[in-house]
Here is the input.
Amino acid sequence: MKYSKSAIPALIGGLLAVMVAQGIARFGYTPLLPLMQDAEGFGVDVGGYLASVNYWGYFLGSLFAAYIATSNNKLFWFYGALVIILVTTPMMGSVDDFMAWSIIRFFSGLAGGMTIALGAALTQESVRHSNIKNWAGIYFSGVGLGIALTGSITWFLSDRLSWEEQWYLLGLISLVLVIPAFIWIRPAKAVNENIGGGNRHWSLPVWLLISAYFLDGLGYVVSTTFLVSIITQLPNLESWGNQTWILVGAAAAPSCLLWPLLVPRFGQFKLVIGIYFLQSLAIVSPILIDGVAGALIGGLLFGATFLSAISLSFNLAALLVPTNTGRLLGVLTAVFGAGQLIGPAISGWLAERTGTFDLALIMSASAIALAGCLLVAANVIYERRTQLRVNVAGNI
Here is the structure.
């Protein structure tokens, strides 16, 4: 296999950037949330509102990223977003006021949405002419690594460090990890990608993918926001929250690399569809299976599917829209963020009033199952159109 000299460094830089922007800055909140609640005395409804504020920022940041995805300034904005993340992550530990947290989480989400979308576009451009077909899987594996890291820090250091000090530590780690991203991610050679790339030319399967990705964002967010809290509230599982979160990260990182090995056998569409349905099952596993087994099976299966659903959806986007893919990646990130806007707030509100996350988990699983059904329809349409083109070409 031949790779360009810049492809591998750019891919590693993208992995580290997404590890910091999502795995640490975003998902560090999940294992630290119960500690913050115990120390500051707020409920899961407040935790949900803070998560929703973060996703409002994520949504707006990804919208802006979609707008500038084809501009020559996207590297500048990508670097700027990373700087914001480096500032806001340790700031979470410097305040104990709801309004201050809300502002910090908003700007962290804003920068996170920009980083994910622009980093994906820059990485995809750098590896486009190399034989790296699973670039998105490698890129998003950084999220799983970040989750495993944040879970491990909370598990091992909670007896020694306060929640504030753990945010400071995450900020320091982020600073170290992000340096290669600044060095290795560079603009790719300019190419003309405007032919057939505008959203006016997107086919029905593309719009079905966008709709499914919105539902995935709506459904997955409950587990990624409250999983540790959900597990610790289950009978006899008070001490299993962080272990389950570590398991999610440990399963997520390699899943992005392993699932694509099955693409030659099942095809990209069918594999993504299967992963969506497995993710739906994973979300309700803690309430379907009692005890530690339900927590561990749910955590392992969720970790093995939620990032792969994201990365393989990005690969699917490149298949459906091979030119101007960056614009579609930005739109996907934006609709994913839109799905996340209401999930945490509604779930936290329901949990606070019912005393359980069961209803929120069932609703989340249903949303992702519906997303899988939309992709089934997209697959049928795509295969029929592909076969039609083959028949037409054969008759010429």
